[in-house]
Prior knowledge:
By secondary structure, this protein is an alpha+beta fold. It is 45% helix and 22% strand. The protein has helices at residues 100-106, 120-137, 142-159, 168-184, 192-199, 203-214, 218-236, 242-248, 254-265, 269-276; strands at 2-6, 18-25, 32-35, 43-50, 53-57, 60-64, 68-72, 78-82, 89-96, 114-117, 160-162. The protein starts with a strand and ends with a helix. Keywords: DNA-binding, Transcription, Transcription regulation.
Amino acid sequence: MRRQTLFPTLTKHEYLILPESIGHYWDDVDHYVARKVGTLNNFSIHFILSGTGYVEIDQERFLVKRGDAFLYFPMQQQCYYSSEEDPWDIRWVHFYGDHLQSFLSEKGFQRFILWKAQKIAHLEAAHEHLLHKAEQHCLLQLSQISTATYAFLLEFITNVQPKHLGEKTELDDRIHTLLPQMQSKACEPFELDYWANEAQVSTYYFCRLFKRATQMTPMAFITLCRLQRSKQLLLKDNKMTVKEIAERSGYTSISYFNKRFLEHEGITPTEYRQMYH
């Protein structure tokens, strides 16, 4: 069974947070999701009310059941699915907002994917309120939808504890602590030695840790940050040339910038600007 509400993603809005989709699935043995790195540009929270399922992280499979939750950041690789023998009853929200990356990272929520809810009934009540509001108002009352989404996020933040996966956690923390810094400096020349020194490991080990912690290479992360910056500039100032935007986004070659943008977005920077303007 599936109950869900979908929203269009708004590129310009005044809200701290907005949902992209909200849903509740149960008795659905075919619920299987696998997304490659860079596929989904929003956050998502899932939590299980009953039954069982699996989340795959770094080629390892983890069983999840009642009270367990998982949180993905934008562009992360994702793989999760219901058990066929004991299908899960799962609720979820996909959401986005300009300042959520730093807000959640500062509170430590980029360090783990798996979480454990202390009071699952409270989380369920906040989600049901949000889902009901979405079904009732959809785009007609965005302020109420935004408020309900933020209330759900706060309930999640204050309700859960990390579900530790073993000794890997401490080393992964070194990488996640650096991510906001790397994002802010993404448009500068990328120096692998510098970031490896910041993590206090060799460049080889830094790349291994980074891949394990984020499911992508350091350069792939930098590329996503640069492209996100370029998309903001394309929409912010229509008078700025694509060459200027490429340079401000960390690309000295406009042809290479166009190539990377086309690979990730499916359209050229000029087409992207024309589509949204």
